[in-house]
Design brief:
about 210 residues; mainly alpha; elongated
């Protein structure tokens, strides 16, 4: 059954046996849908088990509690955006294109239909230290990669490069979240071009070696 009372499309029939890793993936997918729809506090393990088409004991065989399940999802979501940022920076040696690619990585992630970004950027559990640490890891690791590029190309001190990098990450995720909820009249490519253009006009003044 779904949260609306309908059977979920493609759900595995209750009682069907799956290899452990497949079952874990299925449970995480169902949990993501419930957490995104309801938030952490309103979501219940009963809802997640029902969504996945399994009994609660099966759910607890994989995750000892709701927090552990949420953290597993959160870690996966954080890894996804960090990996996308790394791939964007490694996709070119042209710094203007790097800015655009990194910006696009955030917009693509936040525009994803599964709403996973809400676990990272709009969690209602940030008072939990483990959750706060996971969320902060996105900014810390993405900014560290960007800071390395800034430092290598500008010669700025590490702390200055890191501050600029954190600012770029903040610009990317805040503007992308605004775009997905309040600026739907702007296409994703146009939004990325607007914001990356703003970021490039600022960062190239330090200056970067391949300034355009």
């Amino acid at each position: 059954m779904t949260l609306s009372g309908e059977a979920p499309m493609g759900a595995t029939p209750r009682g069907a046996r799956l290899p452990r890793q497949e079952r874990r993936a299925q449970l995480l997918e169902s949990a993501l849908e419930v957490f995104v729809a309801q938030g952490y506090h309103a979501a219940a393990m009963d809802d997640i088990a029902e969504r996945a088409g399994v009994s609660k004991p099966v759910l607890y065989q994989h995750f000892p509690g709701k927090l552990e399940l949420y953290l597993a999802l959160l870690d996966s979501s954080c890894d996804a955006i960090i990996d996308s940022c790394r791939a964007a920076l490694e996709s070119t040696q042209d710094n203007k294109q790097r800015v655009a690619a990194a910006m696009e990585a955030f917009y693509d992630y936040i525009a994803s239909h599964d709403g996973a970004f809400r676990l990272v950027f709009e969690s209602d559990l940030t008072n939990e230290p483990a959750v706060r640490a996971a969320v902060d890891r996105v900014t810390t690791e993405c900014a560290a990669m960007i800071a390395d590029v800034i430092h290598d190309d500008t010669g700025l001190p590490d702390e200055a490069a890191r501050l600029l990098a954190v600012s770029l990450v903040g610009m990317a995720q805040v503007s992308a979240r605004f775009w997905v909820t309040d600026a739907a009249g702007i296409s994703r490519p146009d939004a990325v071009a607007l914001v990356s253009g703003l970021a490039w006009r600022g960062i190239r003044g330090y200056p970067l070696t391949d300034e355009h």
